[in-house]
Amino acid sequence: MGEQVRAIDVQDVISYGDDLLKLLKSRKDIDGLMQSIQGVKSLVSSCNRDYSNIQNLLEESQRQVETCSQEISTARDESDLEPVQKDLTDKLQKEKIILQELR
Fold first, then answer.
1. What is the pLDDT of residues 36-93, one digit of tens each?
2. Smallest Cα–Cα separation from 90: which of 78, 80, 98?
3. So what's the pLDDT on residue 46?
């Protein structure tokens, strides 16, 4: 394929160049732009710190939730043993009564 040639209007290029020169000559605009850039950098830095803090808090919260879940599971397992233990105690009492009656 052949190379496409774009026609460039010389007057448009000169006009763009003039506009750019006017912008660059205006020190006030450059100072404002630099302040904006510094503000953006500061904002990004602040957001990164906040994100890091939130990430750490989230990880700590997840660890606490896991710990609580394990404690709940353990408590449930222990509470399931209570009826069994009570039943065994009752049976032991009955056995003692029967042994006493046999004597």
1. 889 999 999 999 999 999 999 999 999 999 999 898 888 777 767 777 778 888 888 8
2. 98
3. 93
Task: Record the tokens describing residue 84, joined without a space.
Answer: 């069994």
Token look-up 């890091």 returns 52
Written in H, E and C, the secondary structure of 4-50 is: CCCCCCHHHHHHHHHHHHHHHHCHHHHHHHHHHHHHHHHHHHHHHHH
DSSP 70: H
Q: Structure tokens of 45?
A: 């830095």
State how far the Cα of 70 lies from the Cα of 64, in Å rounded to an integer: 10
Are the C-beta atoms of residues 68 and 61 closer than 8 Å to each other? no
100: left (phi over 0), alpha (psi -120 to 50) or beta: alpha
Q: How far apart are CA 103 and CA 88, in angstroms?
A: 23
Amino acid in position 32: G
